[in-house]
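Consider the tokenized backbone below.
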């Protein structure tokens, strides 16, 4: 059985005035944190129409990465091993003055991140500080000298922000590529109306073990499909048998999207973990 992970992505539609007033220590109104009892692989991040955040079967480390806008565990220094293994179910409600939507996930211009940082401090006793260090990275570039994209990557004119704002975002049927957003399972994804930077942050960087910088110079939004070998973003022992015909992620990116990863070095933010503890149930 394959566990489907749904990520709805976009640009947070908050006014500059609201963002300017967003306090750094902003907290959820209420929050529940419990150890996950799920035996299925994969994790789910979603924001319901009511503005309630639901994170199911997520490792604590993934919450830290989202809270601080980091791409990969390599940007966490001093973190204990359990934050990659122990999984939790988290439900939280944002205060009405600082609403969150599905577009808040993965968005820097959103009150979600300070809320998550407060949650980590309150429930996981997280104490950390940010440093800048020279680290190994990957650069995502175009694979072909003529700049031609792969067969599974195409530009779209769909205005997902307008569709969300108007409430006219069409529902996605099972097995269909969403018009706006990303639907993934172990070893595959289908996406509509997402940027290359979102592809980097949500799909590529978490799987390659290094920060990834986008140097494709591709602007706008794209539809894409990507199929690759099952990865390790699931609990140990729960990875489905690999399809011998599926390419590795790096090969799939090149053959299917017309992009490739090149090794490089650069200065990146890292989060130095001074303290983090397993939470007590509420």
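A designed sequence for it:
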């Amino acid at each position: 059985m394959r566990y489907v992970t749904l990520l709805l992505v976009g640009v947070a539609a908050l006014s500059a005035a609201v963002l300017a007033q967003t306090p750094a220590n902003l907290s959820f109104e209420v929050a529940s944190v419990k150890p996950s009892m799920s035996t299925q692989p994969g994790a789910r991040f979603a924001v319901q129409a009511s503005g309630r955040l639901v994170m199911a079967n997520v490792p604590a480390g993934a919450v830290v990465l989202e809270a601080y806008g980091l791409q990969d565990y390599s940007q966490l220094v001093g973190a204990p091993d359990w934050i990659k293994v122990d999984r939790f179910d988290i439900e939280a409600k944002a205060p009405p003055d600082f609403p969150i939507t599905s577009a808040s996930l993965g968005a820097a211009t959103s009150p979600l991140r300070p809320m998550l940082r407060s949650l980590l401090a309150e429930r996981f006793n997280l104490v950390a500080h940010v440093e800048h260090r020279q680290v190994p990275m990957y650069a995502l570039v175009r694979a072909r000298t003529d700049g031609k994209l792969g067969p599974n990557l195409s530009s779209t004119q769909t205005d997902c922000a307008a569709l969300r704002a108007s409430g006219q975002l069409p529902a996605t049927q099972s097995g269909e590529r969403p018009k706006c957003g990303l639907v993934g399972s172990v070893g595959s994804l289908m996406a509509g109306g997402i940027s290359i930077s979102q592809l980097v942050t949500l799909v590529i960087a978490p799987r390659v073990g290094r920060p990834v910088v986008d140097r494709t110079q591709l602007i706008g939004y794209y539809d894409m499909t990507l199929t690759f070998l099952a990865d390790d973003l699931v609990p140990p022992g729960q990875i489905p048998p690999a399809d011998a015909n599926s390419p590795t992620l790096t090969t799939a990116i090149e053959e299917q999207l017309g992009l490739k990863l090149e090794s490089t070095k650069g200065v990146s933010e890292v989060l130095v973990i001074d303290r983090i503890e397993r939470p007590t149930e509420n």
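The chain has two domains: 5-130, 135-266.
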